Amino acid sequence: MRAVEIAAHGGPEVLRFVERPVPEPKAGEVRIALRAAGMNHLDCWVRRGVEGHRFPLPIVPGCDGAGVVDALGAEATGVAVGDRVAIAPGFSCGHCRHCAAGEQQLCRHYGIFGETCDGTDADFICVPVANLLPMPAGMDFVAAAAAPLVFLTAWHMVVARCGVKAGDDVLVHAAGSGVSMAAIQIARMLGARVITTAGSDDKVARGLELGAEVGINYKTQDFLAEIRGLTGKRGVDVVVDHVGGENIGRSIRALAKGGRVVTCGATAGPELQADLRLIFFKNLAILGSTMGGLGEMHEVWGHVCAGRLKPVVGAVLPLAEVARGHELLENRAVFGKVVLET
Ligand SMILES: [Zn+2]
To answer: Most C-beta atoms within 10 A of its C-beta, which of 51, 267, 300, 321?
Structure first.
């Protein structure tokens, strides 16, 4: 089969096409003939490498995928050859206390396809039956492959970590990113007033289309001043941040008393500079979030299947153009998801 492989970290030029044997499903697994692979910023981290972290090279990147079940391993029940499925991107030991509690992302053996083991940028992948997300008849493979990781990430941030409810003011940074596209819709669905930021008027307008009530162009407007104006100096209840860097210190200053900022990434830098006095006087919380539990995955997938939450796809490329996909993501040149067709 064809597969994209990263054998050494570096720029997009390290992405190589290789021939690999078609994988055989183990007990409890199925093999999926992939039709689409959704790209995430995680793909870029895996390609570039992360200081202090060792990835199992060579690796096939790609956390999200959708396709047709092609072969069943022993004990693979409740699924048939020919079923159309998307893939839940996380897996875990299945029997520790965190797994038993449905908090698989806290399992010490938690892993993600395309990061911990081979992923979806290939013709085939084998995954446990527990990772299958059935696709409804009207859903296409590109949309299915665009949804799981970002909607799970955003759901865990907005619902589990921050407990967003009707009437809350929620600031979601960087509307054009996959996680933000999902977070805007989820917070809106829950009845919050969503304020979003983006780096161009065009992206701001797209954020409003997704359900944000107010959009701020952070290149021409000071988001902190805008938030103060919009909330009568009160501040927002929740900030969804995956930008990090200087942005997060300002996000903390945008919070109302009792507010929470939740972070799932640090594309602008990993260091946090914040005034502790603000944090204790205003009873603030800084929350970390990565992925989410399998139950949450099914819950948010149900909303995607019902059309209440919609993956936004900014670019569809053939698998052969994976390097261009990485460039689009790194340059923030698309609004929403980049999906590879396999
Ligand atoms: Zn476990």
So the answer is: 300
Q: Where in the chain is the domain with CATH 3.90.180.10?
A: 2-147+311-341, 152-288
- State what percent of residues in the chain have pLDDT above 90: 94
| Residue 267 CA to ligand 1 centre (angstroms) | 28
Q: How far is the CA of 317 from the centre of ligand 1 (A)?
A: 36
- pLDDT band for 246, please (50, 70, 90 cuts): confident
Residue 298 Cα to ligand 1 midpoint, Å, equals: 18
Please classify residue 177 by burial: count the beta carbons closer than 10 Å to its beta carbon, then call 0-12 exposed, 13-18 middle and 19+ buried. buried
CA of 128 from ligand 1 middle (Å) equals 15
Helix (H, G, I), strand (E, B) or coil at 234: coil
Ligand 1 centre distance from Cα of residue 107 (Å): 4
Quote the ligand 1 centre to 293 CA distance (angstroms).
Answer: 11
User: What length is written for the chain?
Assistant: 342
Residue range 2-147+311-341 in CATH 3.90.180.10? yes
Question: What is the CA(49)–ligand 1 centre distance, in A?
Answer: 26
CA geometry: angle 221, 248, 217, nearest 5 deg:
20
Query: Mean pLDDT, to the nearest integer, of 138-161?
Result: 98
Residue 273 has pLDDT above 90, yes or no: no
Q: Note the pTM of the prediction, 2 decimals.
A: 0.96
| Integer CA distances (angstroms), 77 to 104, 119, 132, in order | 22, 23, 12
